[in-house]
Amino acid sequence: MQTIVITGASGNLGRAVVKKFLSENWRVIGIDMREHAENKHENFKHIAVDLTNETSVEKFVRDIINEYQAIEAAVLTAGGFAMGKIADTKVDDIQKQISLNFETAYNISRQLFFHMIEKNSGRLFFIGSRPGSDMRNSKGMVAYGLSKSLVFRLVELMNEEAKGKNVVATVVVPSTIDTPENRKSMPEADPSKWVKAENIAAIIYFYCSEAASVIREPVVKVYHNA
Q1: Which domains are present in the chain?
Q2: Share of the chain above pLDDT 90, in %
């Protein structure tokens, strides 16, 4: 049985990824500060970890590697969002978004990257955003866009260091995800143009399959018709 680590496991996207991998007979380690009621499955293990605490994350990764020997993949969905133009955005606002969207991903991906390089196998999936991929899309969401842009740069660095190894880092870039929260906040929008969390989960699973083992795609855009 293969093992995957999923952060933000109780969020909308996190739950969809958990469900998909459990249905494909993977062992799922779900990281979140709260446990979702749906995740009561014999192959699911919930662990509460402060992903902004480097020491706690290092201990967590060491413990699960000792228990399961190999971590084949990780999907890092934990993060947060904030609006704000330059005039409204202070350095503290940027630091908070970096902590939510970059530090949470960096701390655990760094530890798992060491492990995957050592065993010459592994897939790391980061959740990007259109604002993070192009600053022209970050108007009105400065801190969020800047924090997400760091995720793209990290993936580029990881793939450079992993050249010649069977270790791949990928940024999955969704457009608007069809969630209850987004439907409520954008009642005039057409959600049929948005992408469903289940579709994103299926794409991530494909990239973990044997059929996709030769793919080295650092950015996967999941935009649908948005």
Answers
A1: 3-173+197-217 (3.40.50.720)
A2: 83
